[in-house]
Amino acid sequence: MHDAVCKKMTAHKITSEVFAEKDDAETQKEGNSAVSKFFFKYPPHMRKNRTAGKEALEYDEDGDLILDRIEEGAILIEHSVATELKLVGLQIWRGALLLGDYILSHPEVFQNKTVLELGSGVGFDSIIAGTLAKEVVCTDVNLGGILRLIEKNFQRNKALVKSKVCVTELDFLSENWNATLSGKVKNVDVIMAADVIYDDKITDGFVKTLAKLLDTAGARQAYVALEKRYVFTIADLDSVAPMYEEFLRCLRRHKVNWSIEEIKLDFPQYFRYQRLSQLTLMRIEKKI
Length: 288
Fold this sequence. Notes:
This protein is of the alpha/beta class. It has helices spanning 17-21, 44-50, 67-71, 94-105, 107-110, 124-129, 146-156, 179-185, 200-216, 242-254; strands spanning 7-10, 13-16, 27-30, 33-41, 72-80, 114-118, 135-140, 164-169, 190-194, 221-227, 231-233, 238-240, 258-262, 279-286. The strands form four sheets. A seven-stranded mixed beta sheet has the order 8-7-6-9-10-14-13, with helices on both faces. Strands 3-4-5 form a three-stranded antiparallel beta sheet.
């Protein structure tokens, strides 16, 4: 397998490169499940909040301010160590960390907004958005107990989350939305998704779902993070990113009336991971 694919496969199961690169001291494993700490540097708006009162400050025995404890935090996430392709949402991938960086770098986009995440997986980016938003609506197809896992991860990080939280099912391959989701959609301000483009059928379903949301929700913009996973093919005699190309084909096939901008990745990196050149963050807006 080409190195740039950046994932390890063992006995038909996949392990995220994010987990493979983590320090063992940051993860507690039990069988195929794990709870990992994802450390991040506090962005300016979080540092300001934490140092607003004297009770937030900590000093050592010499009376010096302990900066590290103020400037760094951690998100606790329960996740799987290895999964089949259909259950990759039970892991964390680099696109989620990239989107997390963007959320922390651009609080004005998410502050006091209703945010809908598509394919929330273990809830990582929804938890980050929950530090800023008025309400976060987390959605995914309920395979492998994923919705319950999102709820557990929110509970683990309740000290960070300031927003209301709604966890409900959304299947990209179904045109029918449940009553909870249908009731929430009209109030959504921002849509986001990370690492949902990895399978032809799911990619097609994602495009159709996003198109329907942009037609019916209050939101007029979506942020989509992904990693262009390159493989060398004999047919092309070149390295290509097949799933990214399939995403573009789906856009043409469904004739969506969108403006798509690839955001420059020059915003601060708050989480610890390799920000590869293959990572992409798109801002998608419906043309008026």
